[in-house]
Amino acid sequence: MHALGTRHPENAETIASQNGIRNLYDNYEAVLRDRAVDAVYIPLPNHLHHPWTIRALEAGKHVLCEKPMALNARQAFEMAQSAEKNGRFLMEGFMYRFHPRSRRIRSLIGRGAIGRPCMVRSAFCFHMDDATVNQGLNVRMKQDLGGGVLLDVGCYGVSLARWMISREPEQVQAQAIYHNGGVDIHLVGNLRFPGGALATLEASFISALQQTFTVVGKNAAIDLPHNAFIPWEDDTAFILRQKDEAIGQTVVIPGADEYQLMVEHFGDVVLGYSEPDYHPYDSIRNMQVLDALAQAAKSGQTVRVDN
Predict the structure, then answer these.
(1) Whole-angstrom distance, CA of residue 87 vs CA of residue 62
(2) Are the beta carbons of 62 and 39 closer than 8 angstroms?
(3) Are 245 and 288 found together in one domain?
(4) 39 pLDDT exceeds 90?
């Protein structure tokens, strides 16, 4: 890595040294002014994704932006427009899509191994420390910084359902529990797709660990253990159950670093060695569904998705 920008360089010196980072800047603008920087990764809080991505694109940098792409679909669209105008590559950082297990499952579905997908269930939930939730000081608990469980981890469930079903949802419903600071901390959402497919997603800051998904087809189903989105580098597995089976077959996939695979794919696209696995306009569509879910949770009404 060529450079790291941070507001607190004194806290990043060890990281820079361990990873061979040659330039440690005490502000983000310096990174964008560095002509040796061709591409940047933006892991900033959610409310900063939009302004700093556009600044980076206008500075001629390719951008890998942490999920969610933005705070809403309008911002995501502006980011995609900037990438197109400046001739730079913009990609949202959904690392789970690059894990060999995820890709094997998507390949099986694409080949018809489970029949037409009719239901996707996902959960990405974890328990934040009670004091952290109550005090509301964590960035995830701050409404003005783009906090809330839907944007933080609910975005995975939306992305997964759209990817596995390979269609865009028509309408959504949702229920949420809100912190007194205004952010959603516990949410369940439902998606309805053309052709009769349905999806449910669970996202929480206040429940026991749930990190799994199931894809149900007409002829078979695929189940994952509770390491579905972040399996680290351990060997992974999924269960393929035929329509009348209670147990099914366990398929083991060797461990891999999905973050590294994501960054390598991003680099390959920038260098012209590969076509993008997905485009910014896929991220816009994901944000449109997230916008609809947020509206549905607030209103208690079924909301049509603005595709």
Answers:
(1) 9
(2) yes
(3) yes
(4) yes
Cβ 128 vs Cβ 138: under 8 Å: yes
- Domain total for the chain? 2
pLDDT in tens, 125-152: 999 999 999 999 899 999 999 999 999 9
Residue 13: pLDDT over 90: no
Domain residue limits at 42: 3-93
pTM score, whole prediction: 0.95
Would you list the DSSP string of the chain? Answer: --EEE-S-GGGTHHHHHHTT--EEESSHHHHHH-TT--EEEE---GGGHHHHHHHHHHTT-EEEEESSSSSSHHHHHHHHHHHHHHT--EEEE-GGGGSHHHHHHHHHHHTTTT-SEEEEEEEEEEE--HHHHHHT-SGGG-GGGT-SHIIIIIHHHHHHHHHHHTS--SEEEEEEEE-TTS-EEEEEEEEE-GGG-EEEEEEESEEEEEEEEEEEESSEEEE--TTSS--TTS-EEEEEEETT-SS-EEEEE----HHHHHHHHHHHHHTTSS--SS-HHHHHHHHHHHHHHHHHHHH-S-EE---
In the predicted model, is pLDDT for residue 242 greater than 80? Answer: yes
- For residues 158 and 55, state if they share a domain: no
- Mark whether 55 and 114 lie in a shared domain: no
Task: Read off the pLDDT of each residue in 51-71 and give the average, rounded to a whole number.
Answer: 98
CATH number where 63 lies: 3.40.50.720
Confidence of residue 233 (pLDDT cuts 50, 70, 90): very high
